[in-house]
Amino acid sequence: MDEKIIKYCQGNLSKEEQDQLLKEAYKDPVLKSRIIDYQHLHSLLELTPERMDKEQGRINYACFRKLVNAQKRKVMLISFSRYAAIIVIAFVSAWMLASYYFSGNLAEQKELIAFQQELLVPAGQRAELTLPDGTKVWLNAGSKLSYPSFFEKERKVFLSGEGFFNVAKNEKVPFIVSTGTIDVKALGTQFNVFCYPGSDYTGVYLQQGSVKAYFPSSESEGIILSPEQYLVQKGKRLELSTMDPDELLWRQGIYTFKRQKLGSIIKKLELYYDVKIIVKDPEILNYEYVGKFRQRDGVLEILRLIQRIHKFNIKKDDELNQIVLSK
């Protein structure tokens, strides 16, 4: 059974084998709990924040198999190699979706269980993962992605923060990213979605293919994007705008700002690093900057680099988790 759970986590079971395993888990709480635990651990090990971590990822997965063989039930936090740029905490919750064929014979009823997973990326970090359908996702700092352990009738995920999606093609089952305000539908394409709760807008940038952005209540009134188009949603309006493709370098751990005012930069730094930045002298907000900064340098180092161009004072209060800028 443990070997079957491993194959389920890897997506190597046939549809019939998946249904049989989940049917057994529906009737066996102990088995269901074990699947949840292993799904949780597998999600952690699937995260590959840096390309150089792949070998370490294989080592960690070998550890996963050992844990299964030893039948250890507790979810463990995996320490990645010294090159890892992130530790992502995945909280796994589960619910049951029962779909029955109309029949009086219980043996012919098909019971399905979907395990919903929620991945949180800490401030100042980023993550990369592959969804059950083969779609690759990059998550920026402070982002959260909720997705099922397998897709059935639809491929729908829920994003809070920023994510880049390289969608696996499946013309019969569209891929949908729900942001809480708008949905983005694609068949097979590459696009970026910016939708932090602390921001006053949602942005969708299409790199390749085609996507449709729309309010869930009025899909027919949505906007279909062409490559290199950028859509911004504010309130009840959807408008096409412009975005520098270099802003997508966050996937490599680089934040790019081109002729952006400090006020705009500060808003993003607050979202990326989960810190409050207070500006005591408003004129500082109008300074414009051009530059590229490494995510791993941290918010203070980024501000110090900016400080070299236009002088201002920086004061960090660790207890209040805030930074004060003044002249």
From TrEMBL:
Highest taxon of source: Bacteria
Gene3D superfamilies xref list: 2.60.120.1440, 3.55.50.30
InterPro entries: FecR, FecR_C, Ferrdict_sens_TM
Keywords for this protein: Membrane, Transmembrane, Transmembrane helix
Transmembrane segments: 83-102
Ranges where the FecR protein domain occurs: 121-212
Domain Protein FecR C-terminal as annotated: residue spans: 255-318
Stated name of the protein: FecR domain-containing protein
Organism field: Parabacteroides segnis
